[in-house]
Write a structure and sequence with these properties.
This protein is mostly helical and 96 residues long. Helices cover 64% and strands 0% of the residues.
Length: 96
C-alpha cells in the first residue's frame, strides 16, 4: 500500500540519496579497526544513523512513508546524534 504522493523526480532522488548513504557507510566501515577502541562505539553509532536514514529514503521511494515522515526521521536522527548515546538501534532486514 502506497501512502506517499510524489513530486516529479522525488523517487529517483530518494533512491540516489539512499545509495549515497550506503556508499558512505561502506567506505567508513573499513576505518573502524583503525580507530582507538574508545572511539569505535561513537563511530558505529553515527554509521548506524546513516544506515537508518538510507533505509528511510528507500521506504519513501517505495511509497511506504510520506515526505513528512521522512523529514521527521531525518530530524530524529540528527537529534539522536547530538546525544551521548547516539540513535536508537537499527534493525536490518534482508532484501533492503
Amino acid at each position: 500500500m502506497r501512502i506517499a504522493d510524489f513530486l516529479p523526480g522525488a523517487r529517483s532522488r530518494a533512491l540516489v540519496s539512499a545509495q549515497l548513504l550506503d556508499e558512505v557507510v561502506d567506505s567508513q566501515l573499513a576505518t573502524m579497526p583503525l580507530l582507538p577502541p574508545e572511539k569505535r562505539g561513537r563511530h558505529a553509532d553515527h554509521l548506524a544513523g546513516l544506515v537508518w536514514l538510507g533505509q528511510s529514503y528507500r521506504h519513501y521511494a517505495r511509497g511506504w512513508i510520506s515526505r513528512r515522515e521522512l523529514q521527521r526521521r531525518c530530524k530524529a536522527t540528527i537529534r539522536a546524534q547530538e546525544t551521548p548515546r547516539g540513535p536508537a538501534p537499527v534493525q536490518l532486514v534482508d532484501g533492503e
